[in-house]
Write a structure and sequence with these properties.
Length: about 150
């Protein structure tokens, strides 16, 4: 199966908050498709962040979650759903007008309410992972296998 290519111009920078299995998979797929010009990552674990950088999953690391979204056209929230509202609050002041924010959590109703409370102006997508492991470290063979749908 060949990789699907992005048909338009790259959207710009992708911010990945949580560069483990799920966030790393989205970053690799977006890069492989030609959909983004740069991938910036943040993780609460410095070792995970360095591993993602050394594997080429991210181009650079942000020092704080609030700065990772600055200038990003796309932002992926890849952390436990109970953290989504707090993260949305932290990145809201840094978001560009028209930035697209999506999460890869599998439990949606409460998470959506929390995110939308802090990001009312952002475009938001719900992505439900179709499979994955609970491992949090990025791997060089991470794959993106999600179904996406507009909210």
């Amino acid at each position: 199966m060949s990789a699907r290519r992005w048909s338009g111009a790259p959207l710009g920078s992708l911010a990945v908050i949580g560069v483990g299995q799920m966030g790393g998979s989205v970053a690799l797929a977006a890069r492989a498709a030609g959909a983004v010009t740069e991938v910036v990552g943040w993780s609460r674990n410095p070792e995970t962040l360095e591993r993602a950088r050394s594997l080429g999953i991210i181009d650079r690391a942000a020092g704080a979650r609030a700065e990772v979204a600055r200038g990003a056209a796309l932002v992926v929230l890849a952390m436990p759903v109970r953290s989504l509202g707090e993260v949305a609050r932290d990145i809201a002041p840094s978001l560009e007008a028209g930035a697209i924010v999506f999460d890869v959590g599998s439990v949606k109703v409460a998470a959506i309410r929390e995110v939308e409370r802090h990001l009312p102006r952002a475009r938001s997508w719900r992505v439900i992972p179709s499979r994955g492991r609970s491992a949090s470290a990025p791997t060089p063979r991470a794959r993106c296998s999600s179904r996406a749908g507009a909210a």
